[in-house]
Amino acid sequence: MARPRSEDKRNALLAAATQVFADDGINAPTARIAKAAGVAEGTLFTYFSNKDELLNQLYLDLKSELRGAMLSSYPRAADVKQRARHVWLSYIDWGIANPHKRKVVAQLAVSDRITAGSKAVSAGAFSEFNAMVEESMAKGVLRNHPPAFVGAILVAVAETTMDFMGKEPAAAEQYRTAGFEAFWRAVATS
Predict the structure, then answer these.
(1) d(Cα 177, Cα 3) in Å, to the nearest integer?
(2) Is the separation of the CB atoms in 141 and 80 below 8 Å?
(3) Quick one: which of 166, 170, 164, 127 has its CA closest to 148?
(4) Residue 141, domain extent
């Protein structure tokens, strides 16, 4: 009879995968992940049938964590710029606090091993942000771009901002503010 799966062991495998992929890239062997998690490689395959399943589950878990950070205490009644600033600041704070996770999310986002289904689930998790973008475009507050394009602009400017904040911590707040203003000017009508 098979042992029941442990949520703690699954989480340890995902945490180990995050560390290994951040250090060595997503092509790192599963044996290294299992070793970092303190389990046998066969145990990894008890939780994930293959490496692609591990990659997709890690992608979904990290995106879910990011979504939670970005939309926790989301000011639904605030104006568009305040809501966008909240999302921006939350994303920046998450990225700065979780540099390994940020690095792995970036790798997985461009990997052809992430399925269309996983990408769709991830995109759906940000539906509230997308709805705000569409509503704001309809009201003429934001330029008429697809929400995915607005999200891509946010990510690109945020990544640049976090890179500079990391290189020059003394100027971090200046970069955080300048980055948001650059993003806002790129998407807002005025």
Answers:
(1) 51
(2) yes
(3) 127
(4) 63-187
